[in-house]
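User: Working on a comparison across species. This one is Thiol peroxidase from Paenibacillus pseudetheri. Can you predict its structure so I can line it up against the others?
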Amino acid sequence: MTQERTGVATFKSSPITLVGPKLTAGDPAPDFVLSKNLLEEVSLSDYAGKIKLISVVPSLDTGVCDAQTRRFNSEAAELGDDVVILTVSMDLPFAQARWCGAAGIDRVITLSDHKAASFGQAYGVLIKEFRLDMRSIFVLDKNNKLTYVEYLSEMTEHPNYEDAIAAVKSLL
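Assistant: Here's the predicted structure for Thiol peroxidase from Paenibacillus pseudetheri:
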């Protein structure tokens, strides 16, 4: 049975239910299968040997998600080749590609959880009521151990960009 957590997060002050476990720093990062494009799927092992910042957004076509992805795209240049920034959403892969092209996003890899919601369920961010992934940040070291986890309590708020980037830099 899949774990559900009610009352830990809201959307515009209304409670929402998150499906999956609540992960903490020190936990091993769960594997996932995400769509890189319509035909290609990726998993955690595709980013082996890299420090990973996983930025989860409900949909790139909303203001906060747009700003969050642009912010991490601009930060990526200063982090070097040992770091990969992945943005995960339920948006379809071709919608992600369209958005990235229009926004000039070239350093962040967008990945779609739309097929099976395996990321959302494994990382405890799948919103039962909307079938979207809740805004959150995960930093994984090169051995796929979680070193930083931020679950936002309100879907429309921004994450703590400075703390997330500091967590990545501490691993360099």
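For your comparison, note: Residues 63-76 form the longest helix (14 residues).

User: Helpful, thanks.
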